[in-house]
Amino acid sequence: MTAQTLPPVAVSCGEPSGIGPEIIVKARAALGADLPFFAIGDRRHFEAYGAVDLISAPADALGVPLGRLPLLAHDFAADAAPGQPDPRNAQGVIDVIGKGVDLVRSGQASAICTAPIHKKALKDGAGFAFPGHTEFLAQLAGVDRVVMMLACDALRVVPVTIHIALADVPEALTPELLADTIRVTHAALIRDFGLEAPRLAVAGLNPHAGEGGTMGVEEMAVITPVLDMLRTEGMRISGPASADTMFHAGARAGYDAAIAMYHDQALIPIKTLDFAGGVNVTLGLPFIRTSPDHGTAFDIAGRGMADPASMIAALRMARDMALARAGGAV
Hints:
alpha/beta, Isopropylmalate Dehydrogenase, 11 helices, globular
């Protein structure tokens, strides 16, 4: 399969009072015919940012003129005031994500790329019970374990623990969680990134990777035994390494993805390397999902200032992952 024969990518509108509609329209203008995609959402929420053509099916996106956004219409309860999320639109946001997933799973779309959501508005307006997109998508897919990867041209990095307090990380960092995270990452690098024998670098939890137990014991008690076990399964894994030596250019040349122990250990290096172009990828799903690595940016919504770089990068990565999964050339 080639990029020309892939179904288009589905893009969920996200929170309509944020920058989602703006960056989707800008991405269409920037990518043109090079990367076919269509948005799902309410026409009213997009027309302030550019011309829209309604489509009745994903395949129709291929015939929409380049200066216009292909939009699969989904009516929302209310207009969208920039910077002011309306809980009446919460159910529409949730339903659009579900519709996008259905289209990918039916083969009508090659991947779903999700614009940012506002979790409080979803909770207030629709009782949304999930910490974020990732957990909701896992439920839609019927899978127990998914992994968050942050990726850009210079780095792929996966945090083992994510949105928990730093004080809670040592207890949460179990051998089972670490092994599952590495296995999901390894499998995704083969299936979705076309790497035959992925190289993984694993960070320690403590300064200097514990320095033989003088600065913490998690490396000896948890991390090293898991890595030794996974090496017997044929995985190419280095570590545990001191995290402060893992992210310079020379070190990054030695691995295909880094495994970090907690949120900031993973996100600080990638946001330093490519703040505007980072992509959030959910690994372990039966379908492909990417997202810009930023939020709704209510402070600049509706002002024409939003940078579409991360949305463009997320769309490109979704397309490349779909090609790899289909056995095509990226």
